[in-house]
Target: Long-chain acyl-CoA synthetase
Amino acid sequence: MGTLGFWRLAQADPGWIAAVDPDGTEHRAGDLLARSNQLVHGLRELGLQPGDGICGLVPNGADGLVLYLAALQAGWYYTPVNWHLTGPEIAYIVEDSEAKAFIVDPRYAAEGSRGAQVIEPHRRFAVQPIEGFRPITDLTEGRPTTAPQDRTAGATMHYTSGTTGKPKGVRRKLSGLDPDDGAELMTFLLTLFGITPGRPNAHLVTAPNYHTAVTQFGGTALHMGHTLVYMDRWDAEETLRLCERHGVTNSHMVPTHFKRLLTLPAETREKYDLSSLKWMIHAAAPCPVPVKHQMLDWWGEVVYEYYAATEGGGTLATPQEWKAHPGTVGKAWPISELLIVDDSGEPVPTGTPGTIYMKMMGVAFEYKGDPDKTAANRLKDHFTVGDIGYLDEDGFLFLCDRKADMIISGGANIYPAEIENELMIHPKVADVAVFGIPDEEWGEQIKAVVEPAEGCEPGPELAEEILASLEGRLARMKWPKSVDFIAEMPREPNGKLLKRKLRAPYWEGHGRAI
Model:
């Protein structure tokens, strides 16, 4: 141990440009180090101890990075909050994570203020002035820029959308390691893809930082000495421009990004020098085989794929492996194990679909405050997120179907139960089912099928009224794109909804049931 980790690298080379904000502002490593040190001193004065948590509702950029760097060197859990959420959804996470400080950007002041009601006023901080929040300078001004005493590795605690409605924090035991040594261990993930430390390397952050993988890959690239180049909102041509401008070598993307990039006119695609690209990694949703072929033809053998979960463990397909096994999401990582089982938990033969279980050596997790859910997804020391897939004779994993109901739209996991619960509240809804239907651009879009209450006229007006009732209660990205009506919902006598029956007609003529 001893050469990697942001804090170590920043002391050795304070002039290194460690981050570039979406507006082009460059941040030197030494300045980010000083800011994160001051924040640790200030939050410790507020009473924070190792094992405590902080929440940040901040956009992509250096402000969020400073929160991450402070927490990870002071033994705290850092939870980046999804900025599409409504006040009550934010409040749930702030309260459930037992945050001892909540930091908000003015961009999200409206919902952030609603969400902040669950935390004491003296623990609410704003990056720029927001009424009812203390300025973050209360924590940093006049504090030493030198390293705090008793540094110990912290961790991120991301919230996964819960199939039963409420999200759960995925919490790992703190390692007790020196923060730089802990960070250096994290870099193992990127070395699996062949990514090398040092400069010149730049990592393009293409998605919101509240996603586990985005924090993981970006944070790890930073700990390897790469420059983080942040995007505020994703745009296809801007991606190419930033790759050329900053000599981007690696990034983390989803198949929706590829689809949008491929629809750019040929002259736009050829305008940019992409020779710096080395490791363009994608995940989060199955990538259609033709799309992946087109990306490999355009960018060359730099497109890597993996399959994993917030909970840990996963697979990896190099460009060469994918070409030999088109459609695969890869083989198990050296520190991970795959197990495909039938409904009774028994392993299935090669080529037979079953539930995918994974484990990652030496990495245990729990769903915070939910031992039942933690136990329910386990098979001895393996866990599942409920996906269905099979292994070929060479050990390569292929996905067949998502957890019966999960919707993946633009790389984001969306859980129907949460949406159904909100729609059921409407007085004109007798019964409702929500599921994903094919969408050329997003992979899936959200469809609601509603059985109207007695005496209510189905039609566009009723659909509009039902959707409008979600305002302020459910993030827009979870709203159904469209509503269809049905006279009677297909349910078994025991009340079980036959969702496949509803879903099937929409998927006719489409290759996969994901």
Summary: The mean pLDDT is 90. The first strand starts at residue 17 and ends at 20. The chain has 18 helices and 29 strands. The first helix runs from residue 6 to 12.
